[in-house]
Design a protein that fits this description.
6-stranded parallel sheet; 22 helices; about 15% strand; Rossmann fold; alpha/beta
Length: about 525
């Protein structure tokens, strides 16, 4: 198994040893090419792998033990599935002959792999030792050739300790290209459009197609809207960038005015398009062109006038080539679009705006910002300027608490030379504060900015808005700086936003992790 990982270029794995997976750990200890990052909880290990994959585009690998060790990774796999992230979970299992018999074996979860089928692109129990390297390499082939998503492999302990023959093959496979005739049809529709618009999703980032996206937008002189997963595909300092899809004020009027919309690598997730704010729809007079690597995606929510299946980079480049040289026919009112881009909700407070401005000004353009779920992160989803792909990590698919701390660790492991900051709330921080021990162990210079309002603030807001009362959301919090120092991290309390720039500069200069606590209450942007 370890040889197969090495052949696929894996250089880091995350996990926790347990009684059933010790053979894997012995193999890891006997080699030098793959480094192991020891987590403090399997959920944290899998979120680390997600952050690693999201920040790099390389698969994140998790090694966990049987039963509760394995099932602890389910929540991270829900997020990896929703976010189309290449995460491989290698879990041990009870002996092959005991699986499914319900005899009460140590750590037994009857038919363990069945827990993972709903959230994995591929989930299987390996039944022959020689099939282990083949299964590992099959997972990586899926990551290379299809829409990424988590893969779960269950490895019976007796196979891990048995002698067998295996075969490692050279990695191969690439994403399929797009049908040229369909790209020419797309070019014809876009070339004749008066108000073309582009929606760029995470598939553009996965395909590393930012340059092709920019070339097509400039050729068409079309506004670009990015999904949350697609942020940074076009730098948000670019005048052609309009906004983030769920930001209704910026995107809904423009999409309603567009006559041809090209959606690339975008699943039109319900949370972002039919959620608390934006309710996206297309009229019969509009033409939707939907380009996606996954043939099951186009038509799932909106029926396209033209569906194109294939790699985003190939599709964008092919469309530019089919358009050829010439001037765009687009007739957008760019002053009007600029007004949409600058629009802000009345709920967007001066404190939220100032905090976001301080963070952007204090970080490098390629700094990686990892979000959890808290009041400010809902606003950052729309208004924090993202200048490069894979620098804004956010659990938009599952909206889970506890993502920020471990995902930031995974991002820092893969990019040790870059600034990494996790922006979390006091509630979400305590979901995974145990992983601060991992950041300390490996001397990872991450800044953890904890916004403390002493409650689950977004839930309080919803309770008041929906029922006119609230309760069971007040928190009894620890002294966060003292807690961080107990782990061995640097820490400080930032009393006001005026003090944040200096504190952030000092924290970013530290060799190890730093926790900064900022007392601040910020309500989410929802309108009910």
């Amino acid at each position: 198994m370890v040889e197969a990982l090495r052949a696929e270029g894996v250089r880091h794995v995350f996990g926790i040893p347990g009684v059933h997976n010790l053979a894997i750990y012995d193999a890891l200890l006997r080699q030098q090419d793959i480094a192991h990052i020891l987590a403090r909880h399997e959920q944290g290990a899998a979120f680390m792998a997600d952050g690693y994959a999201r920040a790099s585009g390389r698969p994140g690998v998790v090694v966990v033990t049987t039963g509760p060790g394995a099932t602890n990774t389910l929540t991270p796999l829900v997020e990896a599935s929703a976010g189309s992230q290449p995460v491989l979970v290698l879990m041990s299992d009870i002996p092959l002959g005991l699986i499914g018999r319900g005899l009460g074996a140590l750590h037994e979860v009857p038919n363990q792999i069945d827990c993972f089928r709903p959230v994995a692109r591929l989930a299987e129990t390996i039944r022959e030792g020689r099939a282990i390297p083949e299964a590992v390499q099959r997972a990586f082939a899926l990551f290379r050739t299809e829409r990424p998503g988590p893969v779960a492999l269950s490895l019976p302990v007796d196979l891990l300790t048995a002698k067998t023959e295996g075969r490692i093959v050279a990695p191969s496979g690439s994403r399929p290209g797009c049908t040229r005739a369909r790209l020419e049809r797309a070019a014809d529709l876009l070339g004749r459009a008066r108000r073309p618009a582009i929606i760029a999703g995470g598939g553009v980032v996965s395909a590393e197609a930012g340059a092709e996206l920019a070339a097509l937008a400039r050729r068409l002189h079309a506004p670009v809207i990015t999904t949350v997963m697609g942020r940074g595909a076009l730098p948000e300092s670019d005048p052609l960038w309009l906004g983030v899809l769920p930001n209704k004020l910026a995107t809904e009027p423009a999409l309603a005015a567009a006559d041809v919309v090209l959606a690339v690598g975008c699943r039109f997730a319900h949370r972002s398009t039919q959620g608390l704010l934006l309710n996206l729809a297309f009229t019969p007079e509009q033409t939707l062109i939907h380009l996606d690597l996954d043939p099951t995606v186009p038509g799932k929510l909106f029926a396209p006038g033209l569906a194109i299946i294939g790699d985003a980079r190939d599709g964008l480049a092919g469309t530019v080539a089919a358009l050829g040289a010439g001037r765009a026919a687009a007739g957008w009112d760019w002053a009007w679009l600029a007004g949409l881009r600058a629009a802000r909700s009345p709920r967007y407070t001066a404190s939220a705006d100032r905090l976001i401005r301080i963070l952007r000004a204090g970080l490098a353009a390629d700094a990686i910002v990892v979000n959890d779920q808290t009041g400010i992160n809902y606003w950052m989803e729309w208004h924090f300027p993202v200048l490069a792909p894979r620098t804004f990590l956010y659990p938009v698919g599952s909206a889970t608490l506890g993502y920020g701390v471990p995902a930031a660790i995974g991002a820092k492991v893969v990019h040790p030379g870059r600034q990494v900051i996790a922006v979390v709330g006091d509630g979400g921080f305590l979901f995974s504060v145990n992983e601060l021990a991992t950041a300390v162990k490996y001397r990872l210079g991450i800044v953890f900015l904890v916004l403390n309002d002493e409650r689950y603030g977004a839930i309080k807001y919803l309770q008041e808005a929906m029922f006119g009362r609230w309760g069971e959301v007040d928190l009894a919090n620890p002294d966060f700086p003292a807690l961080a120092r107990a782990f061995g991290a640097e820490a400080g309390r930032v009393d006001t936003l005026d003090d944040l720039p200096r504190a952030l500069d000092q924290a970013l200069a530290e060799a190890g992790p730093t926790v900064l606590e900022l007392p601040l209450t910020i309500d989410p942007p929802w309108e009910l």
